[in-house]
Amino acid sequence: MQNNTFLTLFVGQTIVKLSAVNSTNTYVKDLLSNSKPLLEGTVIMADHQFAGRGQSNNVWESKAGENLTFSIYLRPVFLAVNHQFELNKAICLGILDGLIPLLGDACKIKWPNDIYYHYKKIGGILIENITKGYQLKESIVGIGLNINQKEFGELSHRASSLSKILHQNYDLADLLAQICKTIEKRYLQLKAGKLDLLNADYLSHLLRINKPGLFKIDGKEIIATIKDVGANGHLRLIIDNDIKEFDLKELTFIFD
Ligand code: BTN
C-alpha cells in the first residue's frame, strides 16, 4: 500500500496496486469480510484481472497492463437504499468529467452506466452496495476503462478505447489520478445533496435522450424515445405517446 500525491481529499489518497488479481471488486469484498479496516476513498487497481466481473454476471475482459481496472471503496451512509441510483449518476458523471476534456461531447453515458464514444463502449461500472437497514453502508465502485488497448477481436464493432479514438497512448497513472479527482468532485456534490444538478447533468449526457431510436423489448424491435430516468433508476421511454418504464433486463439498445 502506498500514499499518493493525488490532488484529492480522499479518493485515491490510499492506493493498492496489484499486478494480478481475480477482480478488484472481489478483492475489496474479501478485505471487508476479513474485517480489514479500509479508509474511505481507498483505490485498488490491477494491471491484470483474471476474473474481471461485469454487469449481469458478465465477464469483464481487459488486456493486461493496457487499461484501467480499479475499485473505489466508499461509505455513502447518507444515501437511502431506494436512492442508490444517485450514486450511479455521480460516478458516471465523475468519469465523464475526466474523459470529456480528451474525447469531447461524443463521450456519453449509455443508460444505466456504460461509458460510450459514439456507438462504441469504452468503459463500464459495477457498483456493489452493502446496506444496513434502509441506508447504504458501503459501496465498492468498480470501474473498467479501455485506454491503450487496440485490439478487441470479435467485439471490435462495439468496443473502443482512448488510444483507438485519439491515436495516442496515455499514462495510466496520470489518467487514474485525474479520474479520481473528478469522481471525488461529483461524490461530494452527491453528499451535499445536489441531486437536481446531478440529475440534470446525467440526463444531459445520456446517449439517445430525446431522440427516437431502436430498442429490443419483449423480443420485438421498437422505435422509442428516452424521456428520462425514474428515481428507481428505471429508463422511461415514450412509446406511441405513452410513457413506459423499463429495468436493465427488459430492454436492449439496437445500434446500426
Ligand atoms: C460492465 O460494463 O459490465 C461493468 C464492468 C466493470 C468492470 C470493472 S474492472 C474493475 C472492477 N473489477 C471487476 O471485476 N469489475 C469492475
Automatic annotation (TrEMBL):
EC number from the UniProt entry:
6.3.4.15
Report the Pfam families cross-referenced here: BPL_LplA_LipB
Tell me the GO molecular function terms: biotin--[biotin carboxyl-carrier protein] ligase activity
Instruction: Indicate the transmembrane segments per the record.
Output: none
Q: Where is the BPL/LPL catalytic domain?
A: 1-191
Q: Which InterPro entries does the protein's record reference?
A: aa-tRNA-synth_II/BPL/LPL, Biotin_CoA_COase_ligase, BPL_LPL_catalytic
Say which enzyme class the record assigns. ligase
Record-linked PROSITE patterns = BPL_LPL_CATALYTIC
| Keywords of this entry | Ligase
- What is the name attached to this protein's record? Biotin--[acetyl-CoA-carboxylase] ligase
What organism does the record attribute this protein to?
A: Pedobacter segetis
